[in-house]
Design a protein that fits this description.
The structure is a homodimer.
Chain A lengths: L10 H17 L10 H16 L5 H11 L9 H26 L8
Helix pairs in contact in A: 1-2, 2-3
InterPro entries (chains A, B): EF-hand-dom_pair, EF_Hand_1_Ca_BS, EF_hand_dom, S-100_dom, S100/CaBP7/8-like_CS, S100_Ca-bd_sub
Organism (chains A, B): Chanos chanos
Pfam family, one (chains A, B): S_100
C-alpha cells in the first residue's frame, strides 16, 4: 500500500490508514488476497487484539467471530466485515474508558 | 484519556485509540462533553478530514453529514455515529486504493 502517504496525515487519517494496513498485512497470506480466511482471521485476532479478546487461541472463539462477521457466509471476512468488527470493538472500548473516567473524576466536575 | 496506554499497543489497537482520542478532542469543546455538536462536527471534519471531504467549509455539507449521521435526530453526533462515518470513509478509501493498486500492477500477478 505504498500509495498511502502518511506524512501530513491528521490523527483520524492515520487511524484509517492503520486499519487498512492491518487488514492487508493478514489478508495477503493465503487464498484471496483481499479477504481474511479463517486462518488469517485467527492470526489477526491473536496478533492484533490478543489483549482485548484474550482467548483467540481458542478455535471455538475464532469460529464464533467468523460466524458473526461473515454475513454473506462465504467463509471469508472481507474489508467491510473487518471494519464492522473494529468499529464495534472501538465503541465498546470507548464505553469502557468513559465509565472508568467518570468513576475516577466524580469529584471533579468542572465542565458539567 | 490518560487511562489509555499506547505502549505495546498493536497497530490495530493504535488505530482504535486514535479514533477515540480524535472524537474526544472535539466533543469536549462545548455542550455535552461526549457528543459532537454541529460546530464541533464542522471543526472535526475540517481539521481531520479536510483532504478527504474537501468542502467541509461549506455549511450545507456539514448539515448533510450531520443529517446523515444523526440517526436519533438530537442534533448531536455520538461516538457510535462517529465510528459509522469513519468506518464508511475507511471502506471507501480501501476500495479506492485497491482499484489504484490493481490498475498499477496488472502485469504483476504473482499471487493470483
Amino acid at each position: 500500500m505504498s500509495s498511502i502517504n502518511s506524512e501530513n496525515a491528521s490523527t483520524l487519517e492515520s487511524a484509517m490508514q492503520l486499519m487498512i494496513q492491518t487488514f492487508h498485512k493478514y489478508s495477503g497470506n493465503e487464498g484471496d488476497k483481499y479477504t481474511l480466511s479463517r486462518a488469517e482471521l485467527k492470526e489477526m485476532l491473536t496478533q492484533e487484539l490478543g489483549s482485548y479478546l484474550g482467548n483467540a487461541q481458542d478455535q471455538d472463539a475464532v469460529d464464533k467471530v467468523m460466524g458473526d462477521l461473515d454475513s454473506n457466509n462465504d467463509g471469508e471476512v472481507d474489508f467491510t466485515e473487518f471494519i464492522i468488527l473494529v468499529g464495534a470493538l472501538t465503541v465498546a472500548c470507548n464505553d469502557f474508558f468513559l465509565e472508568y473516567h467518570k468513576d475516577g473524576t466524580k469529584k471533579n466536575t468542572k465542565k458539567e
